Amino acid sequence: MTIWNLGSINADLVYRVPHLPGPGETLGARSLSRGLGGKGANMSVAAARAAARVVHLGAVGREGAWMVERLLEYGVDTRWIATRAGDSGHAVICVDDAGENLIVIHPGANREIQDAEVAAALDTAAPGDWFLSQNETNGQVAGAEAARARGLRVAHAAAPFEPDAARAILPLVDLLVLNAVEAAQLEAATGARIDALGVADVVVTRGGDGCRWHHGDASPVDVPALAVDPVDTTGAGDTFTGFLIAGLDRGLPMRQALALATQAAALMVTRAGAADVIPDLKEIEESRLGS
């Protein structure tokens, strides 16, 4: 089967600074690194490294060819990534010596994806494939509608959380993934408990407390986190989601897919970076996390 991911593609520009700059302050950076990021790209790479076939649906600017090439190197099918005349999405990230950060995101081409392009790509999908989206692009509802019409299963990661966006896509979703803060925000926005949203499966990630799976009227299932020494939590949630969808796409039962996703996220937080450092199945097995 295949995962069709309508997702953001960002260049992460990370500046190491002695402290976070204040208003009006000019501050020299100690170093600069450029990497591949964006919640969508992270999830595509994670799913590919979890041995799934992944097709990324998205857009970059003319200077973004290196990001498309990197996705391809990581095993992602990039034929449906469009090139726009404007800028690619990018994030400017300042990180100080204490690990605190300041982030400014420009969505760029991530908000210029055409519904017709997504529909054309999904015309080549098969019933039973997965359609995945996050809230960093346009076209999420139209894409989910096109996917449902073609018999695909629909998964959505409700981040960054926006009440109107979440309410609009919920009726089309089979699997919802969000963190504990987003779950509380969604309950406040809808007036419904997280297990009463009409979504078949809801997975709430809880950081160091693991995750909780809600499935219909059944009692929720808790999957504990694994003990590691965290270095950087960037991309851990995206890694979890990518591995979870990949596991389900490969036919794993939900409980087993959650365990795999938990292992991947635990290994991810021991590394600094985003898409470029997401582990693969072999690294997870060799790490012996959860054994």
Report on the structure:
With 291 residues, the chain is α/β, with parallel strands linked by helices. The chain has a single domain (2-9, 38-88, 110-287), classed as Ribokinase (UDP-N-acetylmuramoyl-L-alanine:D-glutamate ligase, 3-Layer(aba) Sandwich), CATH 3.40.1190. Helices cover 32% and strands 25% of the residues. It has helices at 39-49, 65-73, 115-122, 140-149, 163-169, 180-190, 236-249, 254-268, 281-287; strands at residues 2-6, 10-16, 31-37, 53-61, 81-84, 89-95, 101-106, 130-134, 153-157, 175-179, 201-205, 211-215, 221-223. The strands form 2 sheets. It has a 9-stranded mixed beta sheet, sandwiched between helices. Strands 3-2-6-7 form a 4-stranded mixed beta sheet. A hairpin with a 5-residue loop joins strand 11 and strand 12 (211-215). Helix 1 packs across helix 7 and helix 3 packs parallel to helix 4. It is globular. The two termini are 29 Å apart. The model has no long low-confidence stretch (mean pLDDT 93).
